[in-house]
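Cross-posted from the bioinformatics board.
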Amino acid sequence: MKYKNKGFSKQLRHDLACGALRQWKRVIPFVVMYAVFCYFFALSCSNEKWMGNVSGQPVMADYIVYLLRGMRAYDPFSKQPFKPPISWLVMQLFVAFYTGSYAYDDMGSLGQQYLLRSVKKTHWFLGKCFCCLADVMICYLSVWAVCLVFSAVEGRVALQPTEDIGRFVSGMTVTLRNSSEFVFYLGFMPLLTSWVLSMTQMLLSLYLRPAPAMAFVLVYEVASAYVTSYGLIGNYSMILRNEKFAFGGLNTGICVGVELVLAACILLLGCFLQKRFDYLEK
Amino acid sequence: MKAFFRLEMRRMVSSMRFWLIIFAGCVLTIWQYFLTSFAARNNIYFTQSSPFVTLQPNTWYENWIGGELHTMQGYVYFMLIPVWSVLSYSLTLFEDRSTGYTSQMFTRGKKKDYYTAKYLATFLCGGICSVFPLVVNLYLSMCTLPSILPDSSTGTQMVNGGDMWFRLFYTHPNLYELAHLVLIFVFSGLIAVFGMTVGLLVYNRFLIAVIPLLLYMFLHAIGMTFEGAARFSPFEFLPPAVRAGHTTFGATALVTSILFFVTTVVYVFLASKDEVI
């Protein structure tokens, strides 16, 4: 028993090192992209300030609200062009890209050797799920870091969004009482959603191959932007679809509940499928 | 060269991946057809039978997948153009090199001929996989809705004055749609070749499949962020309907030419350096 636990921790360390940390180069293009978004946001704030609509420069929270706010519910019958918010979409692309093909590649290489010799299949899959969590955290932390750098240049690092910047630049009324609410709605909720989707992608990649799995998750995200529904969990990562920020939005409690149930289902399904998977034949 | 090309085309047609991608694309475009053109067919009777209404009936120009911007299927289809193009055939060169198939080919013919045939086959395959589902949608829409000359006063057209080839759209709309299909074919073919060229540089299937999509989406992101930059985004200039800002022929030609020259030059260079024997 002691040996097996040690095996899992070793497996986990290997996954975190190879699946998350050693892929740091994949962050670079996205960090550049988010720097472009932040630069544009700072420019927009300067323009609004010059026009007298905004009193000061944006703080870190304003950057994050601008980048991850998502979009309001879309009405297809309005016949207005459907334009999902690009900074939000690129974030989903970032997570999907970072999750990538590690689990699939590992299953055919070193992971297979682990499985054949010592580690339980369940442990192997759990390791990959933790790896997805690490991937998602790296993606979000790197975007937050870009925002931190931009706000630090202005000397305004704070987790309390500015109301007038929210109204005139981000196009929403920011009604967050304190920074812990901010961390919950803009830190925890998108992260949890991305983790569930990342695990889904990882599980799909084992059977469909990584690129189609990534395309599937992206399509799912676009569908989430198109339809406001509890069934499409991409909605949960957009604060503009939350009832706290938009009339008729989604309830946070239900969202968290659905995500936890989904995460549990993916874990169970993954473990079940892995047990039935014939590695040597594949 | 002809023998290699014939062989590559045969491989392409007999590949399950090629047909699966065409099938997936057709599912999306036919789904879009049922949501727009098929649903709009009753409007013809309404506009013609009611004595109080003098509306122009819906035309297929504004309801087929390339002519409208309000369905998710249309958005997804054009967003995934690099995926359709690259997954269909671009990965085969990487696979051939991994399995040693290329060295077998080099013993039977010239390396230059093999790479030229591969380039042409990948280009054609990328173009076909992107355009064929669109043609299916176009055909179905044309069967359902009339081809009345578009009228800008209806306010339902997604091509505005100043957009690329807008005069053609309001005078010869069929030619306009055909020109866009040709543009999509060429661009998708080039993206497929770009993916194949990436395969000569990196040793990861996933990266080969995804890098063209990333480039495409980054161009789109920059286009959506800065005013006036949308014209350089393929996501904007490929669909006949214009989503954001104005598209121009100059910007379209520039982006396509850059893609063509960079891809071809790098491909030729890397292929000439490839020594497997």
